[in-house]
Amino acid sequence: MKSIVLFSVLILVASVFLYSSYRSQNSVSISSTEAVNTSQESFSTIEKLENPYYSRTDTNKLTLTDAQWKKVLSPDLYAVSREKDTERPFTGKYWEFSGKGTYYCSACGFKLFRSDAKFASSCGWPSFFEQENLSSVVYEIDKAYGMERTEALCGRCEGHLGHLFDDGPKPTGKRYCMNSICLDFVADH
Ligand SMILES: [Zn+2]
Known about the structure:
Layout: H1 2-38, H2 40-45, H3 66-72, H4 75-81, E1 101-105, E2 111-114, E3 118-119, E4 127-128, E5 137-142, E6 149-154, E7 160-165, E8 175-178, E9 183-187
Antiparallel strand pairs: 1-2, 1-9, 3-4, 4-8, 5-6, 6-7, 7-8
The protein binds zinc ion (ZN).
């Protein structure tokens, strides 16, 4: 009888030990995942696994069908980038952001703007007075909603980014009014 009780106690102790080591292993793996996700360093080097067309180095033009884009972009980004939707003002992640670094197209990875050209605009969207280089952004006339505006598109994937206005600050007088969701910011090292 005594040995049965002793055996049961041993089983109980072993179970508690195994469970607690399982818990601690799990919590370690969760926190290390969070550390990777929040690290700016790793963000600047990882690829977007769900989007094989995304590249920070390939500058060749991308011409994909809507069906191909739909497979690799989130529904929110697809709505703005491919269907020319606009995010609500004062809601995007970059309208009030002032980090030093470079902004890339979040759909294809093309270099679009430097943070030096970003300015504090009251419009509620991230605003720049100059594109990174001549091929970064291309334009189309947009006659939607009874207005004639200049639409700004990514120079590589021709995804919608926002609009270009003539009421920006010196030295260009331009205001690239962008949707945050279309931009990926990478901090300078
Ligand atoms: Zn792009």
